[in-house]
Design goal:
- The chain has helices at about 5-35, 75-80, 85-90, 130-135, 140-150, 150-155, 165-175, 195-220.
- It has about 220 residues and is mostly helical.
Length: about 220
């Protein structure tokens, strides 16, 4: 025989479950405050009801944390660069520039022999005042940040270019270097860190730590 109160019982169980889910954390938190089970407060603007379990953002520190990649100098990047890759990467520049010797200017100046030439020196091209006032010579060290963020490097330039990847910029610079009858040599890579220097630095750190330990011990004895 079907229980006439079966539906009411199901509803009561569901209601009890909901009350326990929301009420138990509050009860635990309140009892903890009353009996001194926790030190400090768990409530803030993001937790106005004092719920006992609040998800927090976990930040890894120490050995398990991801360490930033070391910076690589431009000379090393250029030594590893591929002019062939750079030619493919520079294809996006072809909408504004030409690359062949004696080629016409477009929206931007012709880029043949750009590496090592005077800034704003291509005949017949109307440069922005910002580039004209920049002056100097186009070198690897100057073109690299210009390709990375042209507007930040020369505020007011009409060229908008942002290439964030270091190796991609180095590849394009290597390609631009080939656009010359007398290519400009790459800057020398930074010298590698000698293992002996690392070992000496480690020994100095160990000695410093030992001295600090001895000083602390002497202070405690006094």
């Amino acid at each position: 025989m079907k229980d006439p109160l079966y539906g009411n019982k199901i509803a009561a169980v569901a209601l009890t479950t909901v009350l326990l889910a929301f009420g138990l954390p509050i009860t635990i938190n309140t009892l903890g405050k009353i009996f001194g089970g926790h030190h400090g407060h768990h409530t803030d603007e993001a937790n106005p009801f004092g719920l006992a379990y609040i998800p927090t953002e976990i930040k890894l520190e120490g050995p398990g944390a991801a360490s930033p990649e070391p910076e690589v100098d431009l000379g090393t990047l250029l030594a590893q660069a591929s002019a062939e890759r750079g030619e493919r990467g520079a294809a996006l520049c072809s909408a504004c520039h030409t690359f062949e010797k004696g080629g016409p200017n477009g929206i931007g100046p012709n880029l043949w022999d750009v590496m090592g030439r005077e800034v704003a020196s291509v005949a017949g091209f109307s440069y922005s005042a910002a580039v004209e006032n920049f002056g100097g010579v186009w070198s690897y060290e100057r073109l690299d940040p210009y390709l990375e963020n042209s507007g930040a490097y020369i505020p007011g330039t009409q060229m908008v270019q942002m290439l964030r990847k270091d190796q991609k910029r180095a590849d394009i610079l290597a390609y631009l270097a080939t656009l010359s009858d007398d290519p400009l040599p790459f800057p020398e890579p930074a010298p590698p860190v000698v293992e002996e220097e690392v070992a000496e630095a480690g020994e100095e750190m160990d000695e410093l730590a030992a001295d600090n330990g001895a000083a602390d011990a002497a202070t405690e004895t006094e």
